[in-house]
Amino acid sequence: MGHLRLGSGHLWKGKDHCLCVAMQRVTAQLVAGLIAAVLSLLAEQCWADGGGLSLAERVIWAVNSGGESHVDVHGINFKKDPLEGKLGKASDYGMRLPILRSSPEDQILYQTERYNEDTFGYDVPIREEGDYILVMKYAEVYFAQSQQKVFDVRLNGHVVVKDLDIFERVGHSTAHDEIVPFSIRRGKLSVQGEVSTFNGKLTVEFVKGYYDNPKVCALYVMKGTLEDVPKLQPHPGLEKPEEEEEEEEDSEGGEEGGKKKVPAGSKNRVQSGPRTPNPYAADNSSLMFPILVAFGVFIPTLFCLCRL
């Protein structure tokens, strides 16, 4: 009987050892799988956001409206206008003018344009999720005062630029970029705090208003954030320093019973840029949660099993 009991003890110990080894293998496989999944998600997010790519490589679509193809100083390849002969009218009236704030090599992007007597636009195919930027290039080369050409810009039905008056913004024959960030995640387009269903096509529309015809000189869509967009050259005297604006507001407030004066046309203007946090923005820190759960649950279980 003693030998039988001894043999039974060795048998149970052998079973415990096999069970412990099996649990170790299962735990290692689960943790390895979770780590691989997290690394894959991080890699996909990095790719979707354009990490590691040059500016030209991040651009997925670019058109020189009303003009021929052109490669700018950043390597962005602007294609010839696909609407040529189909919709609207092309104009090279600006070719006779030098464009301020633009490099000499890229003035052509502000000197040609496409306009239409009604609302018109472009369709941009987007197949990958991620954060994107729409950049629209403008220059007023005809009118010499404000309130002569005013229009809106829509992105898949969302008004992203309201009452755009190029002359009022920067003056005559001066480059101006409207920059609109947006994101596409889980089949949804998120732009300036608004969300809608996305079907793989981004429609950029220039909306006919009460003052003349809508137009655009060039535009492109790129992966990335606002910090990735090239800035135009500074224009001395174009905008007042923030300190001067604050002093003027204070003085106006004192003269009119504390009421601040709002410049005409600025009340209804929608500035380019996000107004509220993006509800579909990825938080990479949350991707580590599965790993913490794995280590917090399986490792204590493993130790308990090994001590049986």
UniProtKB/TrEMBL annotation:
Cell compartment(s), UniProt: Endoplasmic reticulum membrane
Malectin domain mapped to chain residues: 59-219
Biased composition (Acidic residues): 241-255
Region (Disordered): 230-281
Keyword Cell division: no
Taxon lineage: Eukaryota, Metazoa, Chordata, Craniata, Vertebrata
Main location: endoplasmic reticulum
Record protein name field: Malectin domain-containing protein
GO cellular component, one term: endoplasmic reticulum membrane
GO molecular function, one term: carbohydrate binding
Family stated for the protein in its record: Belongs to the malectin family.
Membrane-crossing segments per the record: 287-306
One Pfam assignment: Malectin
UniProt keyword annotations, A-Z: Carbohydrate metabolism, Endoplasmic reticulum, Glycoprotein, Membrane, Signal, Transmembrane, Transmembrane helix
Keyword Transmembrane: yes
Domain of life: Eukaryota
Topology term for the membrane: Single-pass type I membrane protein
Native species: Perca fluviatilis (European perch)
